[in-house]
Design brief:
This protein has 398 residues and is of the alpha/beta class. It has helices at residues 3-40, 67-75, 95-105, 123-133, 154-163, 184-207, 222-227, 240-250, 271-288, 300-310, 315-339, 353-367, and strands spanning 54-59, 82-88, 111-115, 140-143, 148-149, 168-179, 218-221, 254-266, 372-375, 378-382, 388-390.
Length: 398
């Protein structure tokens, strides 16, 4: 073997060793940040005396098995001054039937249904823009995805955190996830949320000022939304939650992470669906939040596998790999049980965490290139300025 090859392999070993050490340190930092968040969240702030009117916006498209259960948790909220706005794609959208069922079950609640959306490449935002106009008297707008479940005190926490400081313009939420069924794709997606996305969100909340939001919850005062340019300004944007948070910060307001944690019900049925969802997220993040591409540096199982390969599967590197995996699993278990407070049954999928990490490394490499994404039946092109562009007419609306 030539001297040049030896040199390259030695450098790769150094890089992999450094990244492995960084990964373990980051796992520990995420666990510490998570425990601090869990401790701080134990005591929610008090509600203001004069309760603002809150409009809960839910853009819907189609019906999943979990949709009625997810919506039911919102109707059980213990906040009194609220109204619901559901946006459906068209009159034939089966989600409309679920909304009508909810209205019959909760006749005392104020419910508005809008149909269609404003012209936009990002049709979810186009739908939300129409929904916002349906509630001109609402003081606070709360936007959440359809596949979210919440605790009864969720809205009280969010409103109190938004109202206790006039410099806070937007409150967003981290989330935990549970798979809707036994499908491997849904379980992998839940693990991604619980062991990658949310731990990084909790850590970044400590080490940097928040200038972005998460689509799990965006709670914003109406005057702040207007100051940020409204939803019109982001209707063609990829990474709309990131961009809206950035615009709120640019308008001079703070973005705050709530003490409330919502639950994302993952329903992917095939690995292809999981791949397309994560690839879309990777490419959107690359454009909207370029620093996110550095996350490959803290993918412990990937760097452990790389170290094994470049060292010829030597005994000491095998020991390092085992140690890193044990650290990854132990700290992931702590996040699941102590921070996200998931049931112990969630620990059954811990063995999938290293496999998920390797899968996400593949997503990362593919996501470095290309600018097309799949969103349901639509193919979109991501432009350098962060906007979406339709590649072909949609077969069905979002």
């Amino acid at each position: 073997m030539s001297e040049a090859v030896h040199y390259i392999l030695a450098m790769l070993q150094h890089v992999a060793s450094f990244c492995l050490a960084a990964s373990v340190c980051l796992y520990a930092a995420q666990a510490a940040a998570g425990l601090w968040f869990a401790h701080k969240s134990a005591s929610p702030p008090p509600l203001p005396k004069n309760l603002p009117l809150v409009a809960l916006l839910k853009p819907l498209h189609g019906v999943s098995r979990e949709l009625p259960e997810c919506l039911e948790t919102f109707f059980r909220l213990d906040y009194p001054r609220k109204l619901f706005v559901f946006g459906i794609t068209d009159e034939s959208d089966p989600a409309g039937q679920v909304v009508e069922s909810m209205k019959r079950r909760h006749p005392s609640e104020a419910v508005i249904t809008t149909v269609g959306e404003e012209p936009a490449s990002n049709r979810k935002i186009g739908k939300l823009a129409r929904m916002v106009r349906a509630v001109p008297d609402a003081d606070i707008i709360v936007m959440t995805d359809a596949d979210m479940e919440v605790a009864p005190d969720y809205l009280c926490r969010v409103v109190a955190e938004l109202q206790q400081d006039h410099t806070v313009g937007l409150v967003t939420c981290a989330c935990r996830a549970r798979p809707s069924g036994p499908a491997l794709a849904a379980r992998l997606e839940a693990l991604f949320v619980n062991t990658d996305f949310t731990p990084i969100a909790l850590l970044s909340n400590i080490i940097e000022p928040m200038r972005h939001a998460y689509s799990a919850t965006i709670a914003i005062r109406r005057e702040v939304l207007d100051a940020a340019g409204g939803l019109e300004k982001i209707k063609n944007c990829s990474g709309d939650d990131i961009i809206l948070g950035r615009r709120v910060a640019q308008a001079g307001y703070k973005v705050r992470l709530s003490s409330a944690v919502v639950t994302n019900v993952t329903d992917q049925t095939t690995i292809a669906e999981f791949w397309q969802r994560e690839l879309r997220g990777a490419r959107v993040d690359r454009i909207a939040r370029p620093i996110s591409t550095a996350k490959i540096l803290i993918n412990g199982p990937f760097w452990g596998a790389a170290l094994l390969a470049v060292s010829g599967f030597s005994g000491w590197t095998l020991g390092v790999m085992v140690s890193v995996l044990l650290a990854r699993l132990a700290l992931a278990a702590l996040i699941l049980e102590r921070v996200l407070r998931l049931p112990r049954s969630a620990l059954r999928d811990l063995w999938l965490v290293p496999l998920k990490d390797l899968f996400m490394a593949a997503v990362w490499f593919v996501g470095l290139r290309g600018n097309t994404v799949q969103w349901r039946s639509r193919r979109l092109r991501l432009l350098p300025n962060g906007l979406y562009e339709e590649i072909e007419p949609p077969k069905s609306a979002i």
